[in-house]
């Protein structure tokens, strides 16, 4: 008898059949991979198990007993927890308060803050994470938030943990710690449902792999019985070819961006570099190295930034987003839900948000022009959405990322800063986004691409700047690209003499 079984699960959202008669089984104490393109239904299925959603039809069986958790608390009582791809915390509460929110310790009717901090530290210690538990969540990096969420799931003593893209914001070192932790959890008999687009992780960690496509179950196979090429074919129903950047074969244009001695106390210092038209400049580094912070400072989001930034030879006024926009800078942030999109708006409204002044006349948006423009970008980026008026919050993570990118394409920026362009995006959509970024470079844009995936940043970039602890640790020309060279600079290890 299977430990956990999904039986003919159906789930529909307005205009979208998210899951269609999905059935498969999971063994106790195994690490079971769940993979598929964005919109295939992976996260939806995990949320049904975790009580976030309720299936329209079908059911689940745990140890021979039917279960139907109607909320996350009910799921927790069944021993089920979920680490979400999109981080969900109370941003103004501390790490300790968020970790203990479901069961706050009390003494004589009052919150016992000492015990709460002790419990929070113990939960973080279980994953070898050293974060100040008194810090507000909104002061943590995305990677640190991900670690806190993993600690929260483990702190519930769950027997089944759904992990939705758990390493999408983690450094290599943090990912390795997570993998060691997963091995220990399996030894304790805990069952892990592991949702990821990173094929190497799935084949390293998992015992079985289930493939979903367009909301339907395609296959469930033991890992030894399949291979990455077969899984990709099952996922997308087509061949996905490795894309080779074409902008690398073109001559560079004039200098569009120059950064001189950019500093921000406690974040980074003395950052200087240039970026030319038609160039993709990669930024690599461990989480906390200061890459995203530099991007935010250039875009005017850092009130403490000092130094000089020039666009097309003209000095940019720092600490002003309005000035950055007027000078032709765009920023696609790493956290699309919190910073890249307005989730209460639909796809059309999000895409046109940066150019409303161009679409308006006498204070009114020319809707025909707006709809035509937005539909063009939705078609160009292959966004899976029922219509351009569908709520952006209802799209899969990958399709949300495409809408966030479309917003800046519509503005026709000269300099585009892209932070983690394919975080939480499947192999098919990743290839499409890489092709698009390359196309933009071929058209003469200057792109600064920040990525934690070394193969991605090496494939896209002409040069890579490596940051470490707020400083530029080094710069590599394309002929010197290798994961070994990048990791040495990221870790502060001197290269061996030739």
From TrEMBL:
Gene3D superfamilies: P-loop containing nucleotide triphosphate hydrolases. It is a peripheral membrane protein. GO terms for molecular function: ATP binding; ATP hydrolysis activity. It comes from the Bacteria. SUPFAM superfamilies: P-loop containing nucleoside triphosphate hydrolases. Its main location: membrane. It is found in: Cell membrane. InterPro entries: AAA+_ATPase, ABC_carbohydrate_import_ATPase, ABC_transporter-like_ATP-bd, ABC_transporter-like_CS, P-loop_NTPase. SMART domains: AAA. It holds the Pfam family ABC_tran. Keywords: ATP-binding, Cell membrane, Membrane, Nucleotide-binding, Repeat, Sugar transport, Translocase, Transport. PANTHER family: CARBOHYDRATE TRANSPORT ATP-BINDING PROTEIN MG119-RELATED, D-ALLOSE IMPORT ATP-BINDING PROTEIN ALSA-RELATED. This is ABC transporter related-protein. The lineage of its organism: Bacteria, Pseudomonadati, Verrucomicrobiota, Pedosphaerae, Pedosphaerales.
